[in-house]
């Protein structure tokens, strides 16, 4: 996401300081720290046990959204196994994967069984998983059943927010707490899971600080379960100062998004390292914005920042198309926005996968 000024990025790592624009107008926002956060020493010892990690935000080519991926009627282990084979072949060892509360609500036992099956497939291919609970991106109105067909030439036209509304009612908090607690408790000691990403892009879709209450609560629920894996919530829009400050001060491991060119991204890494905790870039790589494997990925390895690009196999999410430009006839864009492989498993760019393999020692 765009950084409006270098100062805005630099201020992020000093979470107890006010945004420079507002400091003269109001007291500094001091974020609460939920008890149970890992110490810096624990977080860094945890990270040091792993080789450098790289991978993608993963959804199977057959699924337009999280519901189609996870519900019993459409869950396809054979397709996932095949795609994970492609990932293993280029040395990817980490995938970030979105869950959905409505899939759990419709069939909690079956949902957890499918998660376990999914984790088995990942482990077969030597891939760790980072699961995401909540998400403020894209569309509201999630419900089980048949999902919409992709809109021609439109980026991520069927992706679902979770929960998709500003949570205020006690009954909504209650079922979301039950969901998070159930999944975390079931898999709290599962070594196939690297990390729990509690909330993707809180404040997106103009929610702003209205997402703060759910963000705080999900950290409380996670700390109550006390999983063996670390928890985090990635920073993504630097103007959302209070949300960023809370995320930075409560994440065991610092995670973030950056779709900007190399100079911008490298500067951000250096700023975020002031937190003295492991760094994982959970979203990058948008070719038309000059955030590419060739430019950014070598820097992330040099800086020992785990690298997770958006998109893996081109499919129903239509993320070969830019979020900035619709192609009404659905023809292939001159330059893919995201994704690494075509549906048949051949690379979009052989030079890219050769570089990825080299960086991963394959």
Question: Which tags fit this structure?
Answer:
36% helix, 8 strands, disordered N terminus, alpha/beta, 11% strand
What does this protein structure show overall?
With 362 residues, the chain is of the alpha/beta class. It has a single domain (6-15, 53-359), classed as TIM Barrel. Helix content is 36%, strand content 11%. It has helices at 6-12, 40-48, 66-70, 77-89, 101-106, 108-124, 170-187, 212-225, 241-250, 262-272, 293-302, 350-359, and strands spanning 54-57, 94-98, 128-135, 193-200, 231-232, 254-257, 279-283, 306-310. The chain has an 8-stranded parallel sheet with strand order 5-4-3-2-1-8-7-6. Strand 4 (193-200), helix 8 and strand 5 form a beta-alpha-beta unit. The longest helix has 18 residues, at 170-187. The two termini are 31 Å apart. Keywords: Glycosidase, Hydrolase, Signal. Residues 1-20 form the signal peptide. It holds the Pfam family Cellulase. InterPro entries: GH, Glyco_hydro_5. Residues 153-310 form the Glycoside hydrolase family domain.
State the assembly state of the protein chains. Answer: single chain
Count of distinct strands = 8
Average pLDDT score: 93
CATH-level-2 architecture: Alpha-Beta Barrel
What value does the Rg take, in angstroms? 19 Å
Structural class: alpha/beta
Put simply, the count of helices is 12
The helix content, as a percent range, equals 25-40%
Q: How much strand?
A: 5-15%
What does the overall shape look like? Answer: globular
Sketch the major β-sheet.
8 strands, parallel
* CATH topology annotation: TIM Barrel
Distance between the termini: 31 Å
Overall CATH class = Alpha Beta
The CATH homology group name: Glycosidases
Following the backbone from N to C, one meets helices and strands in this order, namely HHEHHEHHEHEHEHEHEHEH
- The low-confidence parts are 1-23
